[in-house]
Amino acid sequence: MIGGFLLSYKDESVAVELDDVWFGYDSEPVLQGISFKIKKGSKVAIIGENGAGKTTLLRCLIGIIRPTKGNIIINGEDSKKSSVAEIARKVGIVFQNPDYQLFSKTVSEELAFGPRNIGVPEEFIPEKVHSALEALNILKYAENSPFLLSEGERRRVAIASILTMNSIIICFDEPTLGQDSYAKTRFSELLSNLSSQGKTIIVVSHDVDFVSENIPWAIVLSRGQIKAKGPTKEILTDTKLMDECGLGTPPTVEFALHYRKFDKNFPKTIIREKEVLEYFLHQKNQK
Ligand SMILES: Nc1ncnc2c1ncn2[C@@H]1O[C@H](COP(=O)(O)OP(=O)(O)OP(=O)(O)O)[C@@H](O)[C@H]1O
Ligand SMILES: [Mg+2]
Fold it and tell me: What is the fold of 14-249?
């Protein structure tokens, strides 16, 4: 086993396994032989250029589209044998566009729908709804229509509605889009909290800062194929890989490349602006 990824077969600690998964909406394949295993309780990012196939991959994972070839194993079970509803009990998803997900008259009703739909007894639902509202800081909107909220708030409602389902695997498609820094901090606390409960987290994101700080493992998808997987910091600082996959070099990594000509001790693992500042402050205090 290497970190969030697993190498051995039929391992009980595997949450999700994709084995040579292919899919195309028409004759053109979008996913071309995707294989990976994700360990239970780990946090993994899927990054890649627009159109790489990230959302398609998540759709396959939750069973709303089915691979034309290959297998998806969730918690040891072949998902071919499971209905969408059965998969939904195990895997929750917060879609890239929250509006695809919201339909109820009030935020509270939205959050109650999922658990009610999978047969959670009515007496347990208010508590689940309340704690999800609190976790996403949207308690004050409980009786509002989700459609009258801002985009960032609607995304938080969509996230909260997944929390009430208590899924063991949770996928987020671009969760930090439109979120201010306070909301991002709350979301990163939420991810840690879910992780400490043993949930497996899969985050599709273009937010390099967020991914580098919060998600230790990353998979790079480009034109429907996996180009790399490994520790997030190693992936994001691999300028050749990032360029080849159309992701570009994060600005701080670009800065580090140039600055290292003057200071060869400047750490290769620095990705975030905050880390650059901390490095310089540390250097200054040493003098
Ligand atoms: N419902 C659909 N019908 C036909 N083609 C689709 C459909 N959804 C996506 N595609 C195509 O499949 C490819 C992969 O799309 P996908 O949405 O998975 O990419 P993505 O990596 O999530 O991109 P983004 O970063 O822009 O969200 C694209 O070429 C897209 O045009
Ligand atoms: Mg997408």
Answer: Rossmann fold (3.40.50)
